[in-house]
Each structure stands twice: as structure tokens, then as C-alpha cells.
Amino acid sequence: MFEIILYEWKRAISRKKFIVLLIVSLFFEIAVYLAVYFVPSQRVRVLLTPFYPYMWVLGTLLPQSLLLHFLAISIASGSMSEEYEQGTIDFFLTKAITRERFLAEKWLGSFSLLALVYIIMVVLSLVFSYGLFGLQQDIYLLPEAVLSVLFSSLVFFNIAFMIGELLRRSSLSFIISSSILIGSVLVSVVLSFISFITHSPQYEEISEYLPSWGATQLPFILLSNAPFSILVNALDLMPITSNNVLMAILSVLAYSLISAILSVISFLKRDIPKKVS
Amino acid sequence: MIEAKEIVKRYSGREVLSNISLNVEKGEFVSLIGPNGAGKTTLIRIILALIKPEKGKVEILGKDPFNDKSVFRHLGYVQELPNLPPFLTGREVLLLSAKIKGAKKDEVDELLELVGMREFANRQIAKYSKGMIQRIAIAEALLGNPEVLVLDEPNIGIDPLFSLKVREMFDKLKRNGTSILMTSHELEDVKKLSDRVYMIYKGKIVFEGDVEEMVKKFLGIQVVIEGEELEKISNFVSSFNYVKKVFKEGNKLIVSMTEDRREELLRNLVEAGFRIRAFYMDLNLEEAYSRAISSV
Question: Domain coordinates of chain A in residue numbers?
Fold first, then answer.
């Protein structure tokens, strides 16, 4: 039991692409805290001082905007596709392992790795916020923030996992999944801009149906009424549209479930070819 | 132990396997031969439940491998050009397989020793040569003492010395009751190991039987005679009406016959006073194989 989950961790960690993204993410996390701490301008420092007790929010929510989704795509896009490319899928499926178990453990292995990376980031953010900025407040909101970030990361994680299974090519699935993320964010920005200049809210409403909306907005919407809401809004790099929590949850659920279902159907129904490339 | 019944497989409307049936009994070594693209690997992958056939049924140890994966606890498989996780070491691959198969960890070191990989066991698969990977794959297939072995070109990339060892290993396994299905282009292995041979060509079984039957069918009956006075023997045997052709090949005489009257021929030679050192059927499987392909 769980052999495939451990195998999946080893597989992901052995990839240079993942290691580079992980290093960049951790570096980014640390750099943000150091930049805020060592900010040279006295005026900016005065402006930031009221937020020092909420600095944990910085490292918890900042990766959510884009970085975590790229990490999710990096891990998930290769999870199934690399097994086909390397021909290692035969190794598992010619053992007493059902396809359902294999897929479930692969998914769990990849997603738990993403969660672990994010939790390391959160731990780093706590260490740096307490170490550099003193006692932190409203920390009871941390579990909600972490869970909402992990939940919303399911969208692009599952999209990349599905594309990896459907195409069975890791580079192509990484490129396509990343393009969907970037494309969706760009379309969102454009729609918000059109909405702004035309004063027509329907353009913004359209952007709520894009996969990036729930994925990038849910944690910010959930924490928008927190005592540190100004900081939350400042960290939200995407255009602010509605504050509909239910809609955001449904968006995350819809995109992640549809992708998951398509992955399952594809894996259970299709033949396992000889090494793909 | 392995049974495939009336298997049909199509790719984009093209039939790559047409109504193929195959079986391997307990303790039997069966070889599947045929040119590249004949459908051997597709058939193996159907037997292993990796590919679903359009029609037909597969059973391993009396169970359907598509619905009951437990049969794989008793099965070892050597993939054609084995693809093992490149980031794991040889030992890690075997330990992972032992965990999944429920085999004892002690077996790992024994098998590493058996395939001569103990000293390289802690090196990553990515740093192995083809032959080393093949050795690990063979060890991995043998973990847990499988009742059924499926070998897809098990000799690719391995050196002649280890190839001999592998042959001995498979022979011993067969004698201990393991059922083995092998695809191979190494006809020497096929000849020496197989109880039965299936020849597959363009998705159809064109021959089923033992090696001797295959040679008889496609080459006719050819007897090799080794002895003294080969010229005289040649003249003597040519006088029989069932002898089609006689020719000398080195210090051997090859006698081609129209019907299987080997016993009678040998008796006549002995009664005529010829000193015969060896008298055996010429099992030229390579020649029979190439005739079989050109005759289909």
C-alpha cells in the first residue's frame, strides 16, 4: 500500500524542471520577506509598519497568484505522461495493481507533493514573519488560508494531470496547461479592462467562467473580510471582480472534477501503448 | 496456465490480430516467433491486459487478467527493451517490485547475485547499459517465484555468456513447473527451450507445433549423417525411392526425404555395414522460418 505514492515523490523530485521551480519558489518566498524587511525607504517602511503583525499572509497568499499553479502544472503534467514516455507504466500494470489504484496513487502522490511544497513555503513564511517582524496576529485564519489555496490549486493541477493522461506527452502537456493558465489570466485582464472602459459588468461576469478565476480568486475572496483585508487585496495580482465565494468554489469544483473524470475515463478505457517516444 | 482464445485486434480499422488462439500448459515452454510487426508484442500486451482486444478472451491461471489483477501476483514479465524507472537504483527497482508482489526482501539479494548485478545494484538504472537493465528486468520478473513467465525478447542486449546462463535458468524453471511464454528472434533459444512454437505472420498464426514439426512442414525431412566413406553412403542412400536429394556439407551428408522413413534408412545403413557416427534430423529452424515466411 502507498508504494506508488512514494515512487511518485521520488519521480517528481528527480526532475530538473521541478527542482528549478521549487528553488525559484523558495527563493521568491524568502526574497519577498527580506525585501520588505530591508526596504531602504523610510517612508515605505512607515507605510508597511501597520502590516508587520500580518506578514504571515504575505508568504501564504503570494505564491497562490501564479507560482503555485505553475508548480502544480509542473508536477501534474508529467505524472502520467512520463510513465508512457519512459515505458515504466508496464512495470506497474503488469503487477497486481488495478488501473484505478494506480491512477489514484499517482494523483495522491503528485498532489501531496504539491501540498508539501506549499506547506514548506508557509512554514518559511511563518519563520520569517515571526523572526523579522515580531508577533503575528489573526494566525487562526492560517488553516483556512492554506486549505483554500490548496483547494484552488486543484484546478490547474487536475487540468495538467488530465492533459498529461490524454496526450501522453509531458512537454506538450506542460506547454498546453501553462498556456491555458496564462491565456485564461490574460483574457480575464482584458475582459476586466473592457468592462472598466465600457462600464458593462457582463464582461467581468464572463471572466468568472474562466478556469483561472476560481483558481486564483477563492483564497482572496475568503479572506477579503479579514482584519488584514487591505493586505489581502494588495496581494491579489488578478483583477478583482465579484466576491461570490460559492461561485468561486463551484468554479474550482467544476474544472477540477471535469478534468479528474476525463483522466479516469481515458486511463480506464484506453489501451496502454508501448513506450510512446 | 495461459489461454488466449480467438483474439481479434484492430487499429484504425486494420486487423493486426486475426482470430488468434494460443495456450501454454503448466511447465510448458512456448515460443512465439515471427518477423517484426507480425503482432507478437500486441498479443503479449493483450495477454497482460495492457491492450483490450475487439474480440476474444484471455485467461491466466484460470482468471481473466482484465478483471482480476490478483493473477499478476503469480506472473513475471520481461518487457522488450525493459523500461525501468531511470531514477531508481537496480536494488530499489527490485525492492519496489518485491513490495508490490509481496515477495520476501531476502530474494532481492539472491536474484541480484543470480544475474550478476550485486556489485552494481546501487547504481541508478539511467547509468546502466542495455544488458545490465535486461539483467535487472530478468531478476525482477523472477521475484516471488512466479508460476507464469512472459518474456518479450528477453535476450536483447545481453552478452553470449549471460545468454547461456539465462537459457539454463529458464530451462530449470520450466522443469520446476513454471509456464513460460517467450517471443524471440533468437531461434537458437527457441530451438533449445521450446516445447511448442507458434509462428505468427501478418496477425495470423501460420504454424503451431514443436520445432521438429515446423522443420518437417517447411523444410521437409532432412537427415544428417556423420560417418566414414560419405561418398559410398551417398550412392547407397540415393538408390531409395523415398530419398529426394543427397548432398555433402563439410564432413556431413544431408539426406532430404519425401516421407519420414528415418528408422528404415538407418537400419538399411547399419545392415549394409556402414560405420555411422551420428544420424539425426536436421533441425534448421532458421531455414524453416524463412521458408515459412516466403510460403505464406
Answer: 3-269
